[in-house]
Amino acid sequence: MRTKIKTHFVCSQCGNNFHKWIGKCPICHKWNTYKEEIITDKPIVNLFSPKLFNVETVKSNPLLLKSIQTDKELRIDVIDKEFNRVLGGGLVSGSLVLIGGEPGIGKSTLILQTILKLKYKTLYISGEESAKQLKLRAERLNIKNESCFILCETNLKQILNHINCVQPNIVVIDSIQTLFTEQIESGSGTISQIREIASILLKFAKKTNIPFFLIGHINKEGNIAGPKILEHIVDVVLQFEGDQNYIYRILRNIKNRFGSTAELGIYEMKPNGLHEINSLSELLLTQNYEELSGITIAAIIEGARPFLIEIQALVSTSVYGIPQRNTTGFDIRRMNMLLAVLEKKVGFKLCQKDVFLNIAGGLKINDPAIDLSVISAILSSNLNVPIKRKVCLCGEVGLSGEIRFVNRIESRVFEAEKLGFQKIIIPENNYKDANLKKLNITINPVKKVEEAFKLLFY
Ligand code: TYD
Ligand code: MG
């Protein structure tokens, strides 16, 4: 008689389980997160070899905060300036760093080139590519290295044994979704597999003090595939993003137990790997363009970096019943909100027009200070009146058309001045407190979108 395989449903957000499929998780209240998994009765065995890692049950006892001694955590300089900064000043020993991003964006390239530049003994474990493919990639990168080991393996137990034998200083796992542990019956990439593997690796990393780079796939919504708990377990979560049709890539820090998440690394993908970019503004601005309608320059801050970026809008009469709205690099809902402000507060009727918006360089911008440039670019295209060259803008637009305060105004204005801009329009609330005297740039503070439009178009 065949024994029936027992299954249950696990929430991919919080890990809660239920005997049947349910639409909404009663614990984390997320919708459509339950996935079927096989229930295993096998006891979870300890994977650590007691000889090597003396894994006894540690008796914990509460300590007085005052009495705890801290040493400065040991950080490995990864040579790459951008990467070091995003990690908060280097790679911390015994930490787990998870890197997520779209397929083909360059995650494997980034990590491989980083470890190849180091003189430490490193182990690159790949569950996706063969050793030959990795060798080919390393040849493209053309970095001399004598201490990098490659292992193509997906069984966690084998991997831990190999790490014990090689004793590397840094381990890379490409990718965590391809690994499996025999302790869990469901296939690799499932919620329970990923959760178990991540917690075993965490214990392993803390015991041995080896830092791990874990490469992770993302799902269609752009989140790291697998349970949310994976992001809770690891110490650092990085997101590698950019548009594959462009050469710019952004390394963003989403979670960092050892530093700020405000840092951002910017790279350029070249035939021989990723290269650091120091002055992004100069690359993102079209040099010597004619004055064309629908183009504005925004002074924005992403991470901790100020830079200027070009925004292009095209407004045309709609030939279809429903007007088209399309954006690249900007939230479409936010654009719809700005169109509503234009209509209600400034009196421009765009409901019968198609509106397209494009942020130069394929970058995704989250800084709300870009609003004023977006709304001005749309109006400029609609009126067919170009905005003068060497004018840039920053300011968040509120629902009643007011221009709201933005952070770090000085850095934005300095960047515009450095690049030879003659005028910058900023929120009035920022102007009062900021120290912006003696600069070689005209500063126009504005309170409402109408005032900004008067300065730009009349
Ligand atoms: P890859 O690192 O394989 O992406 P991921 O691991 O995120 O899936 O990078 C794939 C892309 O990068 C591929 O389309 C080719 C490009 N590439 C370069 O342009 N230059 C290079 O030196 C390398 C190694 C890759
Ligand atoms: Mg890859």
Helix content: 25-40%
Low-confidence runs: 43-55
Q: Supply the CATH architecture of the largest domain.
A: 3-Layer(aba) Sandwich
**Rg from C-alpha positions?**
26 Å
Distance between the termini: 86 Å
Molecules bound to protein:
thymidine-5'-diphosphate, magnesium ion
Strand content: 25-35%
Order of strands, main sheet, comes to: 8-7-9-10-6-11-12-13-14
CATH superfamily of the largest domain: P-loop containing nucleotide triphosphate hydrolases
Count the DSSP helices: 13
Task: Examine the coordinates and then state which fold CATH places here, giving the name of the CATH topology of the largest domain.
Answer: Rossmann fold
The pLDDT mean sits at 86
Looking at the chains present, what oligomeric state does this protein adopt? single chain
Give the total of domains: 3
Shape: globular
Main beta-sheet strand count, sense and barrel state: 9 strands, mixed
Instruction: Please identify the structural class as seen in this structure.
Output: alpha/beta
Q: Care to count the β-strands?
A: 23
CATH class of the largest domain: Alpha Beta
